[in-house]
Design a protein that fits this description.
about 160 residues, nine-stranded antiparallel beta sheet, 9 strands
Length: about 160
């Protein structure tokens, strides 16, 4: 059974995870684990020890992927790096998702209506999906189909989208 990413972590772990997601979207750049940690710890009333333990848990639990310089480039479902999967939130903010399926899932992560502009992985044609109140309200092309697979089949899911 596939587990919801939010269910994989404790409330406290999700606080930091969601903070990093919002940071990435608001700043249009990766959260830097060392450089940005003081602000995160202050806003979340978190000690350095707690922060380090949660970061380790998020990385080991596939909640986020950081590069060798400590940049959180992927924090499910948001990509701090440019992808072909652009999401516009109802509040006007825009960002890249890791894949088209994740882009649609951002409606639930952000609890907002979203518009997704993506590209078909097979033919390269533009794909559009609008989600209102958690349901697909509009899409194109009309022949659109979405395929997904269990993430457990991959050792590094973030690099496979």
């Amino acid at each position: 059974m596939t587990q919801n990413i939010h269910q994989k972590f404790t409330d406290r772990q999700n606080e930091l995870r969601l903070y990093i997601i919002q940071f990435t979207v608001d700043h249009a750049c990766p959260f830097q684990l060392e450089q940005d940690k003081e602000e995160a710890m202050e806003k979340l009333h978190m000690t350095a020890v707690e922060y380090e333990k949660i970061v380790e848990c998020l990385i080991s639990g596939d909640g986020m992927v950081a590069d060798e310089e400590g940049n959180v480039n992927f924090i499910y479902p948001v990509s701090a790096l440019e992808t072909k999967h652009r999401v516009t939130l109802e509040d006007g903010r825009s960002f890249c998702a890791m894949c088209a399926i994740d882009a649609m899932g951002t409606a639930f992560t952000f609890h907002q209506n979203v518009e997704v502009h993506s590209t078909c992985a097979v033919c390269g044609e533009p794909v559009y999906v609008k989600i209102i109140n958690g349901k697909v309200a509009d899409y194109s092309p009309q022949t659109l189909h979405a395929l997904t697979f269990p993430l457990g089949e991959l050792s590094n899911w973030a690099g496979s989208c």
